[in-house]
Amino acid sequence: MMLTQLRSLRWADLFLFALLDPRALYRQIDRNEPPSFILSFMVPAAVAAIDIITLSLLGRQTPFFYYKITYGWILMFIYQSLTVAVAASLMDMASQFFGNGGAVRRFIILINFSLFPKVFILPLVYIFHVFSFAPIFFYFFFSTGLLIWSAMIAVQGISEMHGVSLGKAAVVYLFPAILIWGSLFFMFILLVICGTGYFAG
Amino acid sequence: MDRNRKILISILALLVLSSVIAIVEISMNMQQKRGPGISLAGPAIGPGVGIVRVEGPIDMTGSSSPSLMSRGAEGIIARLNEMERSRDIRAVVVRINSPGGTVGASQEIYEKLWRLRKKNIPLIASMGEIAASGGYYVASACNYIVANHGTITGSIGVIAMSPNLKKLFEKIGIDMRVIKSGRYKDILSSFRDISPEERQLIQEIIDSSYRKFLKDVARGRAMNESDIQPIADGRVMSGETALKHKLVDMLGTFEDAVDKAREMAKLSEDAPVYDEGASSLEQILFRMQALFSGGSLMERELRLRHVENNYRLEYRCLP
Q1: Domain B46-158+218-316 belongs to what topology?
Q2: In this predicted structure, what is the pLDDT of residue B283?
Q3: Interchain pair B282, A67: CB under 8 A
C-alpha cells in the first residue's frame, strides 16, 4: 500500500504545490489525498538537518559535528515540530476569532509544508562558501528571503482555507508572533517598572 | 504533471546530494584540522598550557559523566596522550581535587606524568580543596606543586578495609557456604574473622605499596626518603604545613599555577589555555547519547560499582 503510494509520486504534488501554488497545496491537504499529516513532518525534519549542516559548514568544524547531526538533529526536529504545533494552534485560535471554524490539523500540515523553501538554504549558501564570497552575509540574506517565501506560502494557504483576504490571512499568520512578542514586551515593561520601584525604594 | 513531479524528485535528489557533499567536506576538514589526533576544546590556537583534571576518587575507569570526562585514570592518561602528541601544548597544569584512590590507578597516572616530565614538558600540579594520599602521589610526579593555603594534602600511606559482618550474619542466621581452591581465596571476606596469616599477607602488600609510594614521592620531590618518612604516617596537613615540610613548592591558586606553567614553558603571559570543559549543549547531547545507548549514566555507574571486589588497596584519605 505504502509502496504503491510512493511509486505513484502523488506525494510529490504536495511539495510541488508548496513551491508553485500554495492555494492548490491547501486544496490537496483538504482532500487528504494522499494522506499528508505524517508526510508533512518530513519537512521540519529535513529543515532541521539542513540547518545543522549549513551552520556547521560555515562555523568551526570539530568532531562535535557528529553529535550535532545525530542527537542534535533529533532535538532540533522535536523543537521545530513543537513550534509548528504551538504556532498552528495559535493561528487556529486567531482564525476562530474571525468567525471561522477550527482546523488545527490542517494548519499543522500547512505550516509544515510552508517550511519547505528553507531546505534550499544549503545549496544557495554552498555556492558562496565554495567561492569564499561572504558566505555568512549570504546565509542571513537567503534565510530572510526564504523566511518571507515560507510566510507567503502559509498566508496564501490560510487565505484559501477560510476564503478570507490575504490581509486577514496575514494577521492570522502573524498572530502567534504578535502574541509572543507582545507578551515579552509587556513582561519587559513590568520588569522595568518593578526594577525601578525596587531600586527607588 | 508527471514531468513536474520528476523535476521535483530531481530537485530533492540534488538537495540530498548537496547535503552528502557538505557532510563529506566537513568530515574531511575535521580530519585535516585534527592533525595527529588532537581534539582540544576552546577557540584558542597556538602554543599554550594544557589542563588535565583529576577530580574525585581515582580509579581506573571512572565516570563517563561529560562534565568529568577524564576522571578515571584511563581518561586522564588518554588526555595526557593527546597533549603529548600536540605541538601546541608546551606545559601541563594538573588540577587535582581528589582524596586519592586505588593504588594501581594512581600509579598509572604517576608513571604517565613522569614520562612527560622526562620529555621536558613542564608539569605543574595545582591542588584544589583536597589533594591527599593518591591525589598527592599524582601531584608529586610534577615539576612544581602549587597548593592553596587551606588545601588538605599529605595522607601519605596505604589502606585496605573490609567490614567484618560475621556477628551480624550469626544474629540473622545466615551461613555463607564457601567452596574455594586455596586457603587464601576468600581473603578479606566479610563473613568471617581474618586469620593472623591473612593479616600478615595483606600487611606485606600494604607495606610494599607504601614503600613504592614513598620512593616515588622522594623521586618526584628530589628528596631523600628519610626526609619524608617522619611525616609519611598517614597524617593530613594544610597547604601551609605542606610547604613547611617541602611537600609543595608554593601557596597559590589555579591561576598562579597557570602563570607558573607559562613561565616555566617560556610562553607569553597571554598564551592560551586548553581546558577540557564541555559546553552545556555538548553535555546535553552526551547525555542523550548515554540515554540512547542504553540506560542512564547512574545505572552505568552502578553496574561498574557492582563488579568491584573487596581487594581495594587505596592511596586514599579517609576522614
Answers
A1: 2-enoyl-CoA Hydratase; Chain A, domain 1 (3.90.226)
A2: 57
A3: yes
Q: What is the pTM of this model?
A: 0.53
Pairing of strands B313-316, B100-102: antiparallel
Per-domain residue ranges for chain B? 46-158+218-316
Interface mutation target, options A67, A68, A121, chain B, most CBs of B under 10 Å: A67
Cα–Cα distances (Å) from A46 to A49, A119, B18, B58, B209, in that order, read: 5, 7, 13, 45, 59
Q: How many CB pairs under 8 A join A and B?
A: 72
Q: Does B3 touch chain A (CB under 8 A)?
A: no
Q: Please tell me the distance from the alpha carbon of residue A69 to that of residue A46, in angstroms, as a whole number.
A: 12
Strand-pair category, B48-55 with B89-98: parallel
CA within 13 Å, CB half, A141: 8
Q: How far apart are CA A88 and CA B109, in angstroms?
A: 57
Task: Give me the residues of chain B with pLDDT under 70, please.
Answer: 1, 31-45, 62-71, 277-313, 316-319
User: Residue type for B162, please?
Assistant: S
Task: Tell me which chain A residues have a C-beta less than 8 angstroms from the C-beta of B39.
Answer: 62-63
What CA–CA distance (Å, rounded) separates B6 from A7?
A: 12
User: Which residue shows C-alpha cell 619524608?
Assistant: B228
Rounded Cα–Cα distance for residues B250 and B149 (Å): 9
The model's pLDDT over A133-155, given as tens digits with 9 standing for 90+, comes to 889 999 999 999 999 999 999 99
* Predicted local distance difference test score (pLDDT) of residue A150: 95
Indicate if the alpha-carbon torsion angle B65, B68, B72, B73 is positive or negative: positive
Tens digit of each residue's pLDDT (9 = 90 or more) over A41-66: 999 999 999 999 999 999 887 778 88
Taking the Cβ of residue B163 and every Cβ of chain A, the question of whether any pair is shorter than 8 Å is answered with no
